[in-house]
Amino acid sequence: MKEIPTRGWIEAPSPITPLPAWAARLGLRGLWVKRDDQLEALGGGAKIRKLNTLLAAPRLAGPGPLRSVGAIGSGHLVSLCRAAKALGRPFEAHVFWEPPSPTVLTHLAEIVAGATRLRFYEGRGGLLWHPPALLGGVPPGASALEGLLGLVLAARELKAQIDAGVLPAPDVIYTPLGTGGLAAGLAVGLAAVGLRRARIRAVAVVERALSPDWLLARRVERLARHIGLQGPAAKVEIDRSQLGAGYGIATLAATEALHHMPQLPLEALYSGKAMAALMAAPPRGQRVLFWLTPGRRSAEVPSWRALEGRLPRRLEARLARWR
């Protein structure tokens, strides 16, 4: 496999936290957490892994604005905002509505503070009428082919930690499933480093229409072909049991997962739902790795209320109605 170009943002592996008490409680052979929240660069988070390789690709490596789409509390847009600041490039955010929560409003404040242009859409469907918001920029979740290469590097990183005795090879790896980039990249990367037997349990946090099985399979196939993978990728099992009322809407099970594990920076919309799936139906007798994806909150971001004058009028009005 050819060398993968990067921005050099991932200089050290994210640490592994063992949870032996919870492993015993859930009947697991072991439970470990891959702490991407503690990656050093740009506030950490799994999105930085994808941006680290995607923004090194020639088509996105120039000086122009970085543009992408996401919900008003999108962690992807927060990470892209930080990347744009680090690269000294303008940042254009196209955001659609999701129900506010403390995490959503914190993310919105950082997006508003860092965006050179912000456009609001009432729903995800509204973006279909505005192709410029979707074309020529960073795709949702940074899940372009070049972005998935960052997860191939993550699999290499995990293999090195296993070889060093930090943890044994896992039988099952739990991740959230949004755009599918994390699951697809790990499926190919794990196979490439000899961890093909590990199964990925991808817990859907978006509706089936936005995360169909065929789309995930196509991402895996394209990435495997791109890196020249010999043999099948690791198996991905999609778990749709925790979606609840839909994308961006917390469930009781996810909220309870946050309460049960205060030692981890889970959030209710992605990692909380993935943890809820693990707690609801643990694969007893298996070694489990939970891939923790959120980034850290920036200490420099003001309260979103201090930025209300910079919000698009329709978004400001909708937030006012919500309160």
The whole-number mean of residue pLDDT values reads: 93
Give the SSE order as H and E letters: EHEHEHEHEHEHEHEHHEH
Strand content: 5-15%
Q: Helices and strands: which structural class?
A: alpha/beta
Which residue ranges are poorly predicted, with pLDDT under 50 across at least 5 consecutive positions? none
Number of DSSP-assigned strands: 9
The biggest sheet, with number of strands, parallel, antiparallel or mixed sense and barrel status, is: 6 strands, mixed
Strand order of the largest sheet: 1-2-9-6-7-8
Distance between the termini: 52 Å
Output the number of helix runs. Answer: 10
Radius of gyration: 19 Å
Name the overall outline: globular
- Helical content, roughly? 25-40%
Q: Care to describe what's here?
A:
The longest helix is centred in the middle third of the chain and has 19 residues, at 145-163. Strand 4, helix 4 and strand 5 form a beta-alpha-beta unit. Helix 2 (46-54) crosses helix 5 (145-163) and helix 6 (181-192) packs parallel to helix 7 (213-227). It is globular and about 55 Å long. The protein has helices at residues 20-26, 46-54, 75-87, 102-114, 145-163, 181-192, 213-227, 252-260, 271-280, 313-322, and strands spanning 16-18, 30-35, 66-71, 91-96, 117-121, 172-177, 199-204, 236-239, 287-292. It has ten helices and nine strands. The protein has 323 residues and is α/β, with parallel strands linked by helices. The mean pLDDT is 93. The strands form two sheets. It has a six-stranded mixed beta sheet.
